[in-house]
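Hi there, hope your week has been kind to you so far. Do you reckon you could talk me through the fold, stretch by stretch? Thanks so much in advance, here it is.
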Amino acid sequence: MLNKILFIRRDNIGDLVCTTPAIHAVRKKYPHAKIGILVNTYNADVVKNNPDIDEIYIYEKAKHVPEKNKILVWMNNLRLLMKIRKDKYDVAIACGSYSPRLARYAYMTGATVRIGYIPKDIEKSTSYNMALQEPEQPMHEIERVFRLLLPLGIDEIPNKLKIFPSQSEIKRVKEFLKRKNKLLIAFHISSRKPENRWSAEKFINLAKLVLAHNNADIMLLWSPGSEKNPYHPGDDEKAEFIIKSLPQIIPYKTNHLRELIAALSVANVVVCLDGGAMHIAAALGKPIVTVWGSTEQQRWKPWGVKHIILQEQTKKAENITSDQVFEAVQTLLKEISS
């Protein structure tokens, strides 16, 4: 009987969203077990309010807080790992592709059974005492995480993504928008990878087309911060250019992830680039039109919702035209209205 099960997901927002079906499957299989999860300050809001999780352990990545003393950050993280060790987990599941740092975190939890992926050229792992070889066949990230549950006796098709917006944040968004009976289309204009980015000019052209042909409001969303920030580059400048060029658009600045989750939850359709916002929108059940660069569709496409991915052979998002995205939006609107 497993009494305590810990998930470890130390990477980006979308990766954590893609872990939620596995967490729910473990909750169904072991309804009385304590389920914990180790996440970071950057992605933690993804699992806030999730009823499948009993305890959330949040650590800091030193690169996310450059203003803090690195030694102090490391000491705080060590204390957090010591707390997890004291909680004596039966199983720790290291979610994601193999990395030495992820493996070390799993080992340091002190869990009796430690599950994680190892590369094909490694036969054994000192960190994982129940290691699985990285999958040979292409898989969606959700399926890759689910495969780690095989040692727990869970072998099924993953269900829906799960995310639970803050009701107080939803109320705040609705009060800000002051909308009537109109379609609301959210534009999220940010992406981490340069080849996945789409220019401000193309978003402006797309917005003009949508406003001319649809009875809709457009809400503008973006990653906060300056593009010049070397640690956490944002899109404040890009958003400001779009807002000045198109006063009809409704900007909603989200300084925290919980605010972005709430904003996306009130949209009818989401237009975005590849990234965490896309997976959040999928978890909220939103139809999605997404412009992609180099991302692998098999592994990262939106899960469980109507979607259209626009990606061409050069694997550069900027080569997709505003007309192409507009046509995809119209196609999706017809599909969801029929």
About this structure: The chain has two domains: 4-152, 169-337. Residues 229 and 235 are 10 Å apart (CA to CA).
